[in-house]
Amino acid sequence: MANTDQPYRKNPLLRLSYNLIAPFYDALISRPLLGARIQSLRALPADVAGKVLLSGIGTGLDLPLLPAIHRYTALDFNAAMLARAMKRNENLRSSERTGEVDWVLGDSMALPFADAQFDHVVLHLILAVVPQPVQCLSEAARVLKPGGTILILDKFLRSHQPALLRRALNPLSRRLATRLDVVFEEVLREVPQLQVSDDVPLLARGWFRGIVLRNS
Asked: Is 26 helix (H, G, I), strand (E, B) or coil?
């Protein structure tokens, strides 16, 4: 059943922050994370068409890297970011470099879709942004078909990792842009139907990881 709550509305400062960040977002993260995005998205099949949810599409930096064979649904909570993604997609469509995309203004922690709708879900730089990462991952699992996969690219602390500076900065950072204290294993523990099929370090000495989960 589709979730009609909108938890992100409980954090208006985060919404305002991303409105301000949107014009500069690509310049800040596009080049540093390009290789990590490419490696993560290799887990999407390029020979069998499916339905793919891009949950937290942002400005659409993933779009040029996606196999055109699939039907995509791109969702983001921020209208300014989503508008930039739509513009990027218009340019790609003119060169036939992307598949069909449906656009949704919505919440990754309360997806407006029925259960078991997608073959794959992409969670790039969203689990460590949302205030409730467990709810975000649970929603991704809910809309995923049995046997489907979730592709994750994000920054995570390891269990029992001190990371004193990151933890000290987290109270401010989590309100303005992103959380710095998310431990992936703790999040995954709350969504037991998901199993890890791949987990590799991608950037910053393993702070950023590429993770593939399969829905049992």
From this structure: helix
